[in-house]
Amino acid sequence: MWAAWPWQKLQARVALLQETPTEKIPAVLFAAGHFSPTHRGHVLMMHQAEERLLRLGYEVIGAFMSPSHDLSVLEDAHARGAPELRCDFRIKLAELSTAEDSLVAVSSWEAKQSKKSTDHQVATALFEAVNDAYGALFEDECIRVFCVCGCDHMARYHLSRGLGGDYLGVVVVPRDQTEEILLERAASLIFVAEPAQGDAAALSSTKVREAILNGDKEYVKRAMSTSASRCLLQPTLKELQEMRIDFENLHIINPALDIIAQDGAWPLAKLSKRLAELEKEDHPAVVLVSGSMSPAHQGFFDVMKQAKERLERAGYKVIGAFLSPQNATGAATEMRSAAGSEQETALSTGFRLKSTRLAASDDDFVSLGAWEASVMGRVPSPQEVMVQLMTAITQAFPQMMECLHIFYACGPGQSARRGLNSSLNMSDRGVVIVPCENEDCYLLEKPAHLFFIAEPRSGEANIVMSAKIRAAVQTCNGSYFRSVCHPAVSRFLLSPTGEEQATMKADFEYLLPVAASRITDSTVLAEAREKFKIVLSAWAGPPGMIAIEDVARVLEVLDPTWTNSELNTFTSGAFGAVGKAGQISSDDLVDWMFNK
Questions:
Q1: Do 468 and 488 touch, CB atoms closer than 8 A?
Q2: Strand pairing of 583-585 and 545-547?
Q3: Residue-wise pLDDT tens digits, 373-425
């Protein structure tokens, strides 16, 4: 999709040089960084470097923004809480930012490597590529390559000694005159450009992200090109579908708010039914289970079950439970706590909310709480989530003010990660630790301080189960995730509707790479449809009708992972074209399959 080194702009400059030959030394620039997102200062920096090299006798024939590998962004997200913006999103915004610039293009070489690259590796790759493509045009000189960076980048990546060799150099562009005094070292090809002028010197990606979070659209428009700011502030439907995860991580869209607008932050309908059953002497309690839920599965319900049993043995009356998916930042951290998932792509908030909603859809005890997922710019603490739930319940049912208890239920691993290995020291809020079988748990109960240890549950830690589910979906191993997921979640994961696939395109491209690469050419699809009609019609025989029970056989051949119960349920209710005799025409069946 993206070119490693797009040469169009460079080619135009080389063509002009051929018309008016020069004795100057040809040079190409690159700037490496996250570009999360690209702003005007990044582009201006390249022109400041060009001006310095022109005064030194170089002819700059091209320049490239080089967005870093996703792993670098992931490290920054861990260290500083910066949002995880995927390389395709960062490259897209960089291209929009440089579309009208005659010098600067965008390279995907660094971002698309199998691992992180150093500035020296990027410089070497560009040196080889540009000299292979255009070196022959400059008989007396090879094309030099310069890394353009700010003072912070130079210090962080130890570029004060240059990149080594006679053909690789560095041009430092200070933000303003107040930054440290830098000395040029011509022998090492280290040069210092003039600082950027005006407001551009103060621009930063961090400030752009803060402006987005604070709703300061005017700053975003000033800081970015017209096309790039339009993409951020008014994305098209296609852009939203293709880069939904990134728009969520930047807090431009918030799917949790849609759920809250419809159901409320903490839906209380299921809980209210049990309030009427309370006796005066009962001690009502509500269980809260939070987590990445990437996706939701039976393990979360098992935690609730064991926590409920422990609390009831302690004398509480558990009247409800809530699954609370974490927000994007918290969920990504939690998901990658599983061994082997450290570099895995995080699922979108919308995807995780959808799977959780489906998992709790027909449970008369468990509800989806969307408040935690709706919080932007920070990760809410467990205590804060519990306070929000307590407030929602007591405001709706004031009689619960003096007697309700909220318990946060989780495994030992999550309790350690979230700082819940001891009592909260609150009279109305507590913790229930639910270990897995064969999992070490050395915590001691303190019932008087509302700190309980439940009986072990079967299975593995929730983050481990979620990781296995994602792996099973990617390999189309339906037997595993169907054994640990609600049937509606299984259907969502393996056979999403067209609307679900379009809405959460990036998630399904990651989870279902085979399905994502299926044929989309309308002519090819139409030809395949007609051929399949001929084959199925011949199999059905005259008059081309198929009994509903035989439809299950067809589906089973096409997808062996279907279980008998799923096939029976599906075939009995899926086809509106089934006649009174319990048959469907083979052509209608093929049309349904291709339109699914």
A1: no
A2: antiparallel
A3: 999 888 999 999 999 999 999 999 999 999 999 999 999 999 999 999 999 99
Single-letter amino acid, residue 442 = Y
What is residue 561's predicted lDDT score, i.e. its pLDDT?
45
Task: Say if residue 295 is preceded by a cis peptide, omega within 30 of 0.
Answer: yes
Angle at 449 between CA 448 and CA 454, to 5 degrees: 85
Place of tokens 């792993």: 71
CA–CA distance, 412 with 434 (Å, rounded to integer): 7
Q: Quick check: 348 and 329 in contact, CB under 8 A?
A: no
User: What span, in angstroms and rounded, lies between the C-alpha atoms of 6 and 130?
Assistant: 10
Identify whether the C-beta of residue 359 lies closer than 8 Å to the C-beta of residue 323.
yes
Rounded Cα distance between 500 and 90, Å, is 24
- How far apart, in whole angstroms, are the C-alpha atoms of residue 394 and residue 401? 5
Structurally, at CATH architecture level, domain 522-595 sits in Orthogonal Bundle (1.10)
Nearest to 300 by CA among 401, 410, 195: 410
Residues present in the chain in total:
596
3-state secondary structure of 545: strand
Query: Rounded CA gap, 370 and 354, in Å?
Result: 11
353: amino acid identity, one letter? L
509 within 8 A of 516, measured Cβ to Cβ = yes
Residue 397 CB burial class (10 angstroms; 0-12, 13-18, ≥19): middle
Q: Give burial (CB, 10 Å; 0-12/13-18/19+) of 258.
A: middle
- CATH, domain 9-197, list 3.40.50.1820, 3.40.50.620, 3.40.50.10070, 1.20.120.530: 3.40.50.620
Q: Which DSSP state fits 446?
A: B
Q: What is the pLDDT of residue 519?
A: 44
* CB-CB contact of 515 with 476 (8 Å): no
Element (H, E) at 429: strand 429-433
- Can you name the residues that pair with 54 across neighbouring β-strands? none
| Predicted confidence (pLDDT) per residue in 117-127, tens digit | 999 999 999 99
> Rounded to an integer, what distance in angstroms lies between the CA atom of residue 73 and that of residue 299?
31
Helical segments of 204-348, H only:
205-214, 217-223, 226-233, 237-242, 244-249, 255-263, 269-275, 298-313, 328-335
CATH topology of 9-197 equal to that of 253-459?
yes
Banded pLDDT at 271 (limits 50, 70, 90): very high
Instruction: Grade residue 478 by pLDDT with cuts at 50, 70 and 90.
Output: confident
Contact 224, 232 (CB under 8 A): yes
Contact 455, 405 (CB under 8 A): no
Q: Where are the alpha helices (DSSP H) in 408-496?
A: 412-417, 462-474, 478-484, 487-494
